[in-house]
Amino acid sequence: MIEIKGLRKTYRAKGRRDREVVAVDGVDLTVGEGDVYGVLGRSGAGKSTLLRCVNMLERPDAGTVSVGGVELTALNRRGLRQARHGIGMIHQHFALLSSRTVAGNVAFALEVTGVPRAERRTRVAELLDLVGLSERADAYPSQLSGGQKQRVGIARALAARPKVLLSDEATSALDPETTESILRLLLDLNRRLGLTILLITHEMTVVKRICQSAAVMRDGVFVESGAVTDLLHRPDSELARDLFPLDPFTELPGRTVVDVSVSGADADIPLLTEVARTLDVDVHVLSGSVETLAAGRAGRWRLAVPGDGAAVIHHLRSRGAVVAVAEASS
């Protein structure tokens, strides 16, 4: 649904000496139809620039951006305006018109595309019902909570029935409880409408709750990307370390410390009990957990096993687990 190849975007930074700042540096990204894809990174990593290049609010210096099989980077101004109807966007700070009611804010997105008044009214009612704000149609933004404002923003973004939804830190200005409600709404919209969602965030909770795939961005490049469950199985994965933090490595006399990751149905098999009984060994769980992610059940543990651990490692791998001997730097 979204295909980015070799994307590069630079800016001129003003100062004592003008210098070129590379915001996005040769990024490739594929987001499948109906996927929820999260791009994680700290402020200044290039996330917002990347997102703005997807709907061409920022035109890249190099590379291509395609959405739904249409190469946006090749379109003229008129063609781009038409293509943007298929791309909705929600913002961190809501970007609502204070002089318009909730219904008026949602209707605005339809007015600019020339939708007749009667059709607008029907569509606005549908959207407000979809996001749970039917009773607030006549309220103004100043009368709404942060979560309600974001629901208005989501309704407005969906007005033209887009197949792609872009989210620019949509929950970072919200408290944890409201964040959870917005994430549930986005996941529900993804499932009910078949929306493809590309979001940027610095919150690991967002990836944990709704993303099937993710990338970690730093200094304008992806340092890792892929399906969340695949990244969890990589010993060097930053995402895995943040989602399932393990206690620091400690050498234990007569034991080998191993890191174990599981996903899918394997996460619900009592592997550690099974290996202890089958091999008649003591398995010491140093840290770890099993959790339900949007991508499915997954778990990660740091274990201390007897001797060189060969028999335990072989058994765990035969049962579908990914096992690596822990290193002091991990």
What's the structural domain tally?
Answer: 2
Corresponding CATH architecture of the largest domain = 3-Layer(aba) Sandwich
Low-confidence stretches: none
- Structural category is alpha/beta
Trace the largest sheet across and list its strands: 6-7-8-3-9-10
Radius of gyration: 23 Å
Q: How many helices does DSSP assign?
A: 11
Strand residue content: 25-35%
Q: What is the string of SSEs from the N terminus onward?
A: EEEHEEHEHHHEHEHEEHHEHEEHE
Q: Provide the residue-averaged pLDDT.
A: 92
State the distance separating the first and last CA atoms: 36 Å
Q: CATH homologous superfamily of the largest domain? A: P-loop containing nucleotide triphosphate hydrolases
CATH topology of the largest domain: Rossmann fold
> What general outline do the C-alpha atoms trace?
elongated
Biggest β-sheet, characterized? Answer: 6 strands, mixed
The portion of residues assigned to helices is 25-40%
CATH class assignment of the largest domain: Alpha Beta
* Number of beta-strand segments: 14
